[in-house]
Amino acid sequence: MRKMIAAAAAVGALMAGSVQAEIRIAHVYGKTGALEAYAAQSHTGLMLGLEYATGGTMQIEGQDIVVIEKDTQLKPDIGRAALAEAFGDDDAQIAVGPVSSGVALAMLPVAEEYERILIVEPAVADSITGENWNRYIFRTGRNSSQDAISNAVALGGEGVTVATLAQDYAFGRDGVAAFRSALEGTGATVAHEEYVPTDTTDFTAAAERIFNAMKDIEGEKRLFIIWAGGGNPMSKINAMDPSRFGIEIATGGNILAALKAYKELPGMEGATYYYYEIPQNEVNDWLVKEHMERFGTPPDFFTAGGMAAGMAVVEAIRKAGSTETEDLLAAMEGMEWMTPKGVMQFRIKDHQALQSMYHFRTEIQEGKDYGVPVLVRELTIEDMDIPVQN
User: Fold this and answer.
1) Which CDD domains match (predicted)?
2) What would you report as the CA-atom Rg of the chain, rounded to the nearest whole angstrom?
3) Which of 281, 283, 271, 256 is CA-nearest to residue 368?
């Protein structure tokens, strides 16, 4: 059911536009499958973000927010169909998700077909806001270039040689390509790239190929691992003693469960999207406090991202004064809003959220069963030149 909302002078009121009696948001994400832990965090964060941004009312200008959940099962065809169902049958005005880059790439044309906005969170591949992008796509999650540039700052340098290990799909290949490009400005070189299936659990052959490629190289050597989900390549390769070839393992940030493997590597450096003790702002303070009280654990890597997406939805609708797509597009291009990471900004050219990243060094701390990513330096929006690729 739709009704006309008359123009209002009050700042933030929903103005001239045909909207439903309720605001319908679809969360299309991989509730089941190998990345379900990421998905659960993302959904928790989304709901907390909507709650925080609406002051607990779950309303925007008196209209109830309804969140419709769709499970992609981490399958591109199902993700595509689920988003079409959300827009076509459920009449969602805006959608958020998914977890997997491969699924996200399949969903992008659906947003264009229905002319509705899809906020990508947390899928990472550069191509989502690059060669496969369309004007209806926004991303609150970081992209591969943001991961790559921040990690290049942390790990690169003259005389440094790097090998990479990544999963053989969009997330891994885009991540390595962006990392290789980012390293060029640091003086470091990439000697070897290794790609393995996403469900790999035995890394012996891959590790041997990496060791053989690196063993005779002089100077500082690092193996940079880009990985999502299970398999635990870092611990398994570390057990093969890469140090006998002078190779140090390095990686970016991850969820708390994965940080247990970091405990084996004190002093390891990299860059992370989020760790709950790093950002210092009121939004993150609220998130940490509420998450601890409700769930007994601190908020995790993808909880912060989901919250950023939820807050972006509320800010966009308020700023637009409407849920009509063209109004939202005008409001969201260049929009700045607060998140648990501080201020994010949707870049006009590709709708990628510009945001801080964090150079960390792993420490062992009493009472924590994982390696703690301690802040070395915050890399702000101004510190990173993120390429536009569309």
Assistant:
1) PBP1_SBP-like (cd06328)
2) 21
3) 256
Q: Do 15 and 121 lie in a common domain?
A: yes
Q: Tell me the two tokens of residue 286.
A: 């609220």
Cis omega before residue 76 (within 30°)?
no
* pLDDT (0 to 100) of residue 87: 98
How far is Cα 118 from Cα 135, in angstroms, rounded to an integer? 10
- What 3-state DSSP class applies to 134? coil
Whole-model pTM? 0.89
Tokens of 252: 């970016």
Q: Do the beta carbons of residue 309 and residue 119 sit within 8 Å?
A: yes
pLDDT at 20: 56
- CA-to-CA dists, residue 13 to 5, 10, 316, 325, angstroms: 10, 6, 12, 17
Residue 74 CB-density burial (10 A; 0-12 exposed, 13-18 middle, 19+ buried): buried
Rounded CA separation 182/185 (Å): 6
What is the per-residue pLDDT for 17? 41
Estimate to the nearest angstrom the gap between the alpha carbon of 218 and the chain centroid. 35
> Looking at residue 229, what is its pLDDT?
84
Residue 137 lies in a domain: yes
Residues 251 and 341 in one domain: no
Residue 375 lies in a domain: yes
Residues 362 and 219 grouped into a single domain: yes
Give φ, ψ of 161 to 5 degrees. Answer: -115, 135
Q: Return the beta strands (E) in the chain as ranges.
A: 2-5, 17-20, 22-29, 59-60, 63-71, 94-96, 117-120, 137-139, 160-167, 189-196, 220-226, 247-251, 269-272, 336-339, 342-346, 353-354, 357-363, 372-379
Q: Are residues 179 and 32 in the same domain?
A: no
Please count the other Cβ atoms lying within 10 Å of the Cβ belonging to residue 205. 11
152 in a domain, yes or no?
yes
- 89 shares a domain with 45: yes
Asked, for residue 258, whether it belongs to a domain, the answer is: yes
Q: What is the model's pLDDT at position 21?
A: 84
> pLDDT (tens digit, 9 = 90+) per residue, 56-105?
999 999 999 999 999 999 999 999 999 999 999 999 999 999 999 999 99
| Cα distance between residue 54 and residue 161, in whole Å | 49
